[in-house]
């Protein structure tokens, strides 16, 4: 690693803004457990070559690691614009927005795009369901959990979420009460 570091630093002395060298040197800093130094190098890299998605994604990941969520969201927004089919960019954006705790609509768009890009990933459906449950969007949350169960019929998180969050919290009529009781009975039987 030290030989590679010296070679890259020599290259950067000759061409200080060389994005590929900055990118590779940032990887060495990550391996050396120096995330702030790596983030600084990646910031220089994206300044030198702003149309390259990969360093934007890596910069966002490092900013999340450093708990700089606003800066991470900015990096991931740029990455999603440059690489609209890269799920890592949308996953990172969703995580940054979740940590910031603002802009529900943007977070929802990121989660939906992620589920679209990786339709077989149960975790995406579960996170979408949790988010929608927290926003009191029970029907959409139920659909996300049911999608998760379709992918993984034994998924306990999805089963528990559906069991705990009936479509109507208080049964309003006899039929709804019977449906509620049936669901609870089936849910209890499944968990036993």
Description:
- By secondary structure, the protein is mainly alpha-helical.
- Helix content is 78%, strand content 0%.
- The chain has eleven helices and no strands.
- The chain has helices at residues 2-14, 19-31, 35-48, 53-65, 69-82, 87-100, 104-117, 122-134, 138-151, 156-164, 174-191.
- Helix 4 (53-65) packs antiparallel against helix 5 and helix 9 runs antiparallel to helix 10 (156-164).
- The longest helix is centred in the C-terminal third of the chain and has 18 residues, at 174-191.
Summarize the structure.
The protein has 192 residues and is an all-alpha fold. It contains eleven helices and no strands.
The sequence of SSEs as H and E is HHHHHHHHHHH
Give the termini distance in whole angstroms: 54 Å
Number of strands: 0
Which structural category do the helix and sheet elements fall into? mainly alpha
- Tell me the strand percentage band: under 5%
**Mean pLDDT across all residues, rounded?**
89
Question: Level of helix content?
Answer: over 70%
**Ranges with pLDDT <50 over ≥5 residues?**
none
How many helices in DSSP terms?
A: 11
**Form type:** elongated
> What does the largest sheet look like?
none
Calculate Rg over CA atoms. 22 Å
